[in-house]
């Protein structure tokens, strides 16, 4: 990202507008730290998709959420971010 901000602006880049705004912020007479955080808020949904992909059945109906999803559902409900490696 740092290279994109310091290179000449290519407005055809898919993030051209965002890069332009960042350049305007950085051109101001102040100190700016930008931090990008990726937040994927549906880890429970991702887990269920993986569960379905591993299943040999065409359709699986769950009456209740599996116990291992409880913490994922709580994290999603609380809107908590986590670092992904």
Description:
The protein has 85 residues and is mainly alpha-helical. It has 2 domains: 1-36, no CATH class; 43-78, no CATH class. The protein is built from 4 helices and no strands. The protein has helices at residues 2-6, 16-26, 43-54, 70-78. The longest helix is centred in the middle third of the chain and has 12 residues, at 43-54. 1% of the residues are buried.
Fold blueprint:
Blueprint lengths: L1 H5 L9 H11 L16 H12 L15 H9 L7
List keywords for this structure.
2 domains; 44% helix; single chain; 85 residues; mainly alpha
**Major β-sheet profile:** none
Helix content: 40-55%
Relative strand content? under 5%
Q: Low-confidence runs (pLDDT<50, min 5 residues)?
A: none
Helix/strand structural class: mainly alpha
What is the first-to-last residue Cα distance? 18 Å
Number of helices: 4
Compute the CA-based radius of gyration. Answer: 20 Å
Beta strands, count: 0
Mean pLDDT: 77
What is the global morphology? elongated
Number of domains: 2
How are helices and strands ordered from N to C?
HHHH
């Amino acid at each position: 990202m740092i290279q994109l901000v310091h290179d000449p602006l290519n407005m055809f880049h898919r993030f051209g507008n965002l890069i332009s705004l960042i350049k305007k912020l950085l051109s101001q007479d102040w100190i700016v730290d930008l931090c990008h955080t990726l937040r994927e808020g549906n880890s429970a949904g991702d887990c269920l998709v993986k569960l379905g992909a591993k299943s040999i059945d065409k359709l699986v109906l769950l009456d209740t959420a599996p116990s291992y999803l409880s913490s994922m559902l709580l994290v999603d409900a609380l809107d908590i971010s986590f670092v992904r490696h």
